[in-house]
Structures are given as C-alpha cells and as structure tokens.
Amino acid sequence: MSTEAAPPDAIRHDWTVAEIQAIHDLPLLDLVHRAASVHRAHHDPADIQRASLLSIKTGGCPEDCAYCPQSAHHKEAGLGRQRLMPVETVLREAAAAKAAGATRFCMGAAWRQPKDGPEFDAVLAMVRGVRGLGMEACVTLGMLTPSQAERLAEAGLTAYNHNLDTGPDFYGDIISTRTYADRLDTLQAVREAGIGVCCGGIIGMGEGVRDRAAMLQVLANHAPHPESVPINALVAVEGTPLQDRPPVDPLDLVRMCATARIVMPKARVRLSAGRRALTREAQVLCFLAGANSIFYGERLLTTANNEADADAQLLRDIGVPVPAVIGLAAAE
Ligand code: SAM
Ligand code: DTB
Ligand code: SF4
C-alpha cells in the first residue's frame, strides 16, 4: 500500500468533517494560497461564468425555510403570491441576459415540488427555449420525482439547482417542512437523469464553522462532485425569522469559497447571494480563492443584486473579457 499523501489538488470523495474544518481554519493567506493553487491546476483563472437569474414563479411557497421571503409562513415579508410567468416573457428576459453577456440562464420557482400538468409543461418549454438561444439552462423548482427529472433532461436542461443550505445537524433549525434526506433524494434523481447538479448553501444563518464544513463534506463526498456550488451569504430580509442576523464577515465568504475550491477542485464555485454587500476588493479575494461564477444582472430572485455595468467593469479591471453591456432589462 502506498504511504504517500494524496497531492493537494487530488479529487477525493472521502473527506472527514475535521479535515475540512482544519482547511477552513488555516491562516487566511495560507488558505487562499492553497485554494488559488488548486484553482489554477484545474481552471483558467480568467474564466468567470456569468449566470442570470429570474424568478419565474414568486411567493406563496408552502415550505418554511427561515431565510426565505417567498415562504407563505412569512407573511410579514409581504411578497404575496404570483402566478407562473408566461413562456414568452421568460424567453425575452433570457435573450436580454444573453445580449448583456450572460452564458447561463437560471429560473427559480417558489414551489415545494412542481405539479405535473400545464405548469410543468411550460417550464419544459422555457428550458427548450433557453437552450435554443444557445445558453445553458438551469432551473430550481423544489423536490422532483425521477420522471420529472427525466423530462427536464429530455428538454435539454443543463443543471438543476437544489441547495443543501447547511450541515445536517443545523438543518432542522432552519427548515421543518422537509428533511435533509428529501433533498438528497432529489439530488440523486437529478444525477440519475444525467442533469448537472448545482448544489450549495448559505452562511450567516447562525450555524457554526463545523456546520459549514459538514455541508461541504456532504457535497464533496458525492461522486461525482456537483458541477456547480453556489455559496450564498444570507440576505437578511425583513419579515423573515432571520431578519436580525448580523451581516456575514466578507472574509468568512472568502474562507468558504476557498474551502469549497480545495475539496471540489473542478466545480464552479459561484459567489452568489450577498455579493452586493462586498467591496470590489473582497470580491477579487473570493475570485483569487477559487470562486469562478457570479449571478449577473440587477436582481437575484426577489432581492437586489450588483449593477451589471459595475460587474462588467470589475471583471474587465481584473482581466476577464466581457462584451459591452447593453442592459439586462427585458427587451420591449
Ligand atoms: N423553492 C426552490 C428550493 O428551495 O429549492 C427554489 C428556490 S429557492 C429561493 C433557491 C435557494 O435560494 C435556496 O435553496 C437558498 O439556498 C437560496 N436563498 C433563498 N433565500 C435566500 C436569502 N435570503 N439569502 C441567501 N440565499 C437565499
Ligand atoms: C442560489 O444558491 N442562490 C440563488 C439561486 N441559487 C436560485 C437564489 C438567491 C436568492 C436570494 C434571495 C432572493 O433574491 O430572493
Ligand atoms: Fe420555498 Fe425555496 Fe423559499 Fe424554501 S427556499 S420557502 S422551498 S422558495
């Protein structure tokens, strides 16, 4: 048996929580250096993906996720409930996002699980339409049956977003209407249908570093690793149970991006919600630490995101080519 240690950028699926936590807690400059080395061994550092996001069905969700303004349990967040957007409206938004330089279009619906029938068929048409524009298509619709995952695959879906949000031990503090195992079942259906997996989580909900490391362990011990891993900082929305959580320290986001990069060397690590609160310099530190995707466009699902022209300028300033921004608003 070989006694040699695995090289620092090896693809592994046997991480322990303690190992991941030890990486996370390294002196920051050592952590960033290690993550940047892994990043450069597996990626072109000038390749930073721009994904645009659209809420195709907003509010009124039966789940009780404590962070989410779209939960029907958090009426004070005041979002109400809207119907599924028409396919043409969605495809106009996708075309505008493409014109502004996005390569992936992500569509989110505030559902516990989609119902089969006209609404699911409309989502399939949206996926086909986005693929027809030459963009990658991602949707996040809640829990799926294996048959729904197969139909999404047939429609050409590139990736399905379904976050684990946090570690298994803290999960019950945040969500009571579904279990961690429910989440893992949907991820398995997505993987078995041949769709890319986009799965990550949120920091700043009151969890400990061990919970953050435990979430990364669950992700990294999946074989293959998720293709993309969104790292969100909580956007503390008024009217949600987490409205008074203090803001996340940007250096905690750097640590999380770096640790995700080290344990999942080939994944796209997406610096997701909460980026608006970061300075340009903090964002650059996240990119150095291995983040290589952002949400691009002035809205996330229901909250504001960074200005698209400021993002395009930031990327150009660090040497990432971006086409001229001609606006992310839907074409008239
Ligand atoms: N209903 C589907 C689901 O939960 O899978 C899809 C939409 S849901 C809004 C998508 C993800 O957005 C959640 O899993 C969560 O990680 C993230 N999210 C929602 N609200 C957030 C907030 N206030 N701050 C940070 N991330 C948030
Ligand atoms: C993900 O991890 N973050 C995105 C996307 N996947 C769907 C959603 C962020 C939502 C932030 C709160 C809002 O705008 O409603
Ligand atoms: Fe519903 Fe998704 Fe919000 Fe949870 S995160 S309340 S499942 S929309």
Automatic annotation (TrEMBL):
<dbReference type="InterPro" id="IPR007197">
    <property type="entry name" value="rSAM"/>
</dbReference>
<dbReference type="InterPro" id="IPR010722">
    <property type="entry name" value="BATS_dom"/>
</dbReference>
<feature type="binding site">
    <location>
        <position position="61"/>
    </location>
    <ligand>
        <name>[4Fe-4S] cluster</name>
    </ligand>
</feature>
<feature type="binding site">
    <location>
        <position position="106"/>
    </location>
    <ligand>
        <name>[2Fe-2S] cluster</name>
    </ligand>
</feature>
<keyword id="KW-0949">S-adenosyl-L-methionine</keyword>
<keyword id="KW-0808">Transferase</keyword>
<feature type="binding site">
    <location>
        <position position="65"/>
    </location>
    <ligand>
        <name>[4Fe-4S] cluster</name>
    </ligand>
</feature>
<keyword id="KW-0411">Iron-sulfur</keyword>
<feature type="binding site">
    <location>
        <position position="270"/>
    </location>
    <ligand>
        <name>[2Fe-2S] cluster</name>
    </ligand>
</feature>
<comment type="subunit">
    <text>Homodimer.</text>
</comment>
<feature type="binding site">
    <location>
        <position position="138"/>
    </location>
    <ligand>
        <name>[2Fe-2S] cluster</name>
    </ligand>
</feature>
<dbReference type="InterPro" id="IPR058240">
    <property type="entry name" value="rSAM_sf"/>
</dbReference>
<dbReference type="Pfam" id="PF04055">
    <property type="entry name" value="Radical_SAM"/>
</dbReference>
<comment type="similarity">
    <text>Belongs to the radical SAM superfamily. Biotin synthase family.</text>
</comment>
<dbReference type="InterPro" id="IPR024177">
    <property type="entry name" value="Biotin_synthase"/>
</dbReference>
<dbReference type="InterPro" id="IPR013785">
    <property type="entry name" value="Aldolase_TIM"/>
</dbReference>
<feature type="binding site">
    <location>
        <position position="198"/>
    </location>
    <ligand>
        <name>[2Fe-2S] cluster</name>
    </ligand>
</feature>
<dbReference type="InterPro" id="IPR002684">
    <property type="entry name" value="Biotin_synth/BioAB"/>
</dbReference>
<protein>
    <recommendedName>
        <fullName>Biotin synthase</fullName>
        <ecNumber>2.8.1.6</ecNumber>
    </recommendedName>
</protein>
<comment type="function">
    <text>Catalyzes the conversion of dethiobiotin (DTB) to biotin by the insertion of a sulfur atom into dethiobiotin via a radical-based mechanism.</text>
</comment>
<keyword id="KW-0479">Metal-binding</keyword>
<comment type="pathway">
    <text>Cofactor biosynthesis; biotin biosynthesis; biotin from 7,8-diaminononanoate: step 2/2.</text>
</comment>
<feature type="domain" description="Radical SAM core">
    <location>
        <begin position="46"/>
        <end position="275"/>
    </location>
</feature>
<keyword id="KW-0093">Biotin biosynthesis</keyword>
<keyword id="KW-0408">Iron</keyword>
<dbReference type="InterPro" id="IPR006638">
    <property type="entry name" value="Elp3/MiaA/NifB-like_rSAM"/>
</dbReference>
<keyword id="KW-0001">2Fe-2S</keyword>
<feature type="binding site">
    <location>
        <position position="68"/>
    </location>
    <ligand>
        <name>[4Fe-4S] cluster</name>
    </ligand>
</feature>
<dbReference type="Pfam" id="PF06968">
    <property type="entry name" value="BATS"/>
</dbReference>
<keyword id="KW-0004">4Fe-4S</keyword>
